[in-house]
Amino acid sequence: MTRDELKDKILTILTEDFEFEHPGLNDNLRDDHGFDSIDAIELLGKIEVILDFSLTRDEKEKAMEIRTINNILDYIEGIVNSRNK
User: Fold this and answer.
1) At 26, which CATH number?
2) pLDDT tens string for the chain (85 positions)?
3) Of 50, 51, 14, whose CA–CA distance to 35 is shortest?
4) Residue range of the domain that includes 21
5) Where are the beta strands (DSSP E) in the chain?
6) Is the CB of residue 33 less than 8 Å from the CB of residue 69?
7) From residue 57, how far is each of 7, 31, 41, 44, 48 by CA, in Å?
8) Contact 44, 65 (CB under 8 A)
9) Which of 4, 11, 20, 37 is deepest in the core (most CB within 10 A)?
10) pTM here?
């Protein structure tokens, strides 16, 4: 899956499931959209479905530092690259 395809899937999840209106790739999800830790856990579950694998506890803990959609995309690319080595 390309970064653009992944971006489209994440944007769809954020607009449809979390009711974000016009999220920007560098918006601070917490400050600009009220995204909280429960939302982050739910999003991680949806990311696992997209990627078709489970995230480790360590990967999930690192995800809690994510603040923007670009951070999400970088995070996912890092995980996929580390697993494909």
Assistant:
1) 1.10.1200.10
2) 899 999 999 999 999 999 999 999 999 999 999 999 899 999 999 999 988 889 999 988 888 889 999 999 999 999 888 888 7
3) 14
4) 3-83
5) none
6) no
7) 23, 25, 12, 11, 13
8) no
9) 20
10) 0.88
